[in-house]
Amino acid sequence: MKDLALPVVFTVIGVMGILKTRGMGGSNVNFFPGVEKGFRRPLILGILSLLLTRTSAVTEPPARLTAIMKTLPARIFFVFTLSFLASPDVENAIFLSLLFLGVIQLLRTKEERERHPYIF
Asked: 0.85 exceeded by the pTM?
């Protein structure tokens, strides 16, 4: 059960954050308005969307991209970016990322969690 503590914390923080920033009482917290404006530009959104969702479906990803995606900072960035594409709001994207990572780890079997003991 000890190995489930962090995924449960991530899941709870994700759910509570989403409820706090978007759901409860119509509150609309916006800590990063400049970042959202920059990410919402069609060029940026288009490139990120194609890079993250279409590369493997259309062609084999380039070796450099595959190598980059194996690094921890890139993994964090790509999970956040996918969350941002799902909900173009920085606060929601952060909490959706935490929720996703927590749920994925909770869905893993004990053997899978032994092979992948961390969220990433």
From this structure: no
